[in-house]
Each structure stands twice: as structure tokens, then as C-alpha cells.
Design brief:
It is built from 3 helices and 18 strands. With about 260 residues, the protein is α+β, with helices and mostly antiparallel strands. The chain has a 4-stranded antiparallel beta sheet with strand order 4-5-6-7, with no helix packed on it. A 4-stranded antiparallel beta sheet has the order 8-9-10-11, with no helix packed on it. It is elongated and about 90 Å long.
Length: about 260
Amino acid sequence: MSTLLVSVNFNGNIGAVQAYNTTTGRLLSQQRLSGIPTGLAVSRNGLFVGNASDRFSIITRIAQNQARAFADPPIGTTDLAIGFNGNLFSLSRQGFIQEFDGRTGAFIRPLAIGTTLTTGITFGPDGAIYASTVRGNIEKVDPRTGRILDTVGFLLPGPRDLAFNRAGQLFVLTARNGNSVEIIGGPRGPIFPPLVRQIVLFTPFPYMIGFPASILVGLPVNIGLGLLVMIGWILLFLVLNRWFWKRGLRQYSGMGA
């Protein structure tokens, strides 16, 4: 039997973590918490919950049906994830990641990632961090440097959280139609194979909105390649325009006073 864990906020600063049977949807158990749950992560060391109130923001570990304070992130937490090294990674709304020892809760290091207003993080099967943003993108981030490596999802409506399944598919909770789960990619990675993505980069379409928008928000783009592609298409359409114009004049006839 597989179990789905859900964090809920009842009223004010009271929340809980609920476990559901994924086949029947039946509620199996519930662990109440003081504070609003802001993220869940599971490892062999227990269940970790970020919870916040007007007065505090802590990470709680639930093990053997007991909830105890585990870590105190100095800038709060909006989501949690377990790294492949077994450590706990806490995300703040400002886009900063804090790494804690997965056994003791000791603070290890901060990691400033190259995107802000982040709503959720998870680790992919390739070891990279995948972060959802309020702009609707899913960014692939180097867990060592925080540098954005790639953008694997675009213009999703209000992505809130994300997770991979065992087949390597990325599931994203979005605000489409209230709440929807959308699937990005598959066992081999992003939704578009690398060859297709390279071909698309040489068409004019990415440079109409995506290219200037990426520059404005600070995403990594190849400006030189983008300018060359745009100049090439402008010259091509200029030549085609003159050719069609001259061809049309040869076939045009008109009469009038």
C-alpha cells in the first residue's frame, strides 16, 4: 500500500500532516502541529515539516509518532527537500536554500540560487535541484553553485510544488482550474529532446517573447547566438519580401482614370 502525505492548515496557526491511502483516498492518520505547515520531506531519519506562525519558523521532525523541533532556519522556509547526500534542504520565499545535516539538524551552508520568488524545490534523478517560480517556470539548478542550468517548464499557471516519480516524470501542482497536477518530461528528461530544443533555437519563435523576457529577468541566455539568429531571419525575410514584391508587380495590371 502506498501513502500520500498532505500538509493542511485548519484555521489560523493550527495545521496538520495527514496520511491518505492512495488507492481508496481514506484518511489513515493525522499529526497536528502548532503553526502553518510550509513543506514536507521524507527520509530514513523521519518526516520533516516546515511550520511557521506569527512568532516563529522552525522545521519539525516527526518520528515514531512524536513531533520535535529539528532545525531553526534563520530566514524561514516555504518548502523542503532531501538531497542525495541525506541532508535536508530548506527553501525561503526569497529564493535562498539552506542546507541542514539530515541527522542532527545542524546548519551547514546557505545556497543562493539564480532565481527569486521561488515556490517549491525538489531533487531530480540527475541530482540537480528543480525549482518552481511565480513566473511559471521550472528551473534546473546546480546544487553546488546555485547556477541555473536549464529551464524545463514555461508559463505554467501558478506552480506551487513539484516532485518526481520513480520513472523520472516531474509532477507540478499548479493553479490551473483551481488545482491541477501537470506532468513535465518523462523518463529521459525534459519534455523536448535535446535535438528538438536545439532546432527550435534556430527558429524565430523563441526570440519573439522568450528571449527578451529571459534577459529582463536575468535568466542565462546566449545573447550572441540570439542576435545572430534574429539578424539572419530579418535578412531572410527581407530578401523574400523583395522577391515576392517584384514577382507580384510583374503579374499586376490595373486600369482607372
